[in-house]
Design goal:
This protein is α+β, with helices and mostly antiparallel strands. Among the domains are: 3-62; 116-163, no CATH class. It contains one helix and 13 strands.
């Protein structure tokens, strides 16, 4: 009496056709890890612990053809899913490229520099070489200094008028 040990690779948990004693049997799932012949067209299956789980009959030609058609259909579905995923990936890549191009084309808005300078609570507005303060004082460039009518001595640093 022949005994077949079906070695399941990886984490297979579904039966597939296995050739045993000249016929194909659906085996290899957890309930049919091992098989022994009961007749020329029937096997007794057992699980990995050796417990008998029931018999299975040899597959007919029609069952083999149906199995092959199901496998082919699954392969087509997997190809369609793969193509769909590639299309989604391409769509995301195109969107990413478009955003990157838009970011490169972005030009920050130009703003006018602030023309008022301040010291304490006094705000100065420049007009040529003269600054007029919100407190009524005026400042002018004298040599390398800026002197104000209220006695302050100021210095221009960048856009800021610094007075002491």
């Amino acid at each position: 009496m022949a005994v077949l040990a079906l070695f399941v690779s990886g984490c297979a948990s579904t039966a597939i056709p296995n050739l045993f004693n000249g016929s194909y049997y659906m085996a290899g799932d957890p309930a049919c890890v091992n098989a022994r012949a009961l007749s020329s067209s029937r096997i007794m299956c057992s699980d990995k612990k050796g417990n008998e789980t029931g018999y299975r009959d040899a597959m007919t030609i029609e069952q083999m053809q149906m199995y092959q058609m199901q496998v082919a259909q699954q392969q087509i579905q997997m190809q369609q899913i793969s193509q769909s995923l590639q299309q989604v990936g391409q769509t995301f890549q195109n969107a990413s490229n478009q955003i990157a191009q838009q970011n490169q084309q972005f030009v920050a808005p130009q703003v006018q520099p602030i023309n008022t300078q301040g010291y304490g609570g006094t705000t100065y507005v420049r007009s040529g070489n003269t600054w007029v303060g919100s407190n009524g004082s005026s400042c002018q460039i004298v040599s390398q200094s800026i002197l104000c009518s209220d006695g302050r001595k100021c210095q221009l640093i960048g856009q800021n008028l610094i007075c002491n």
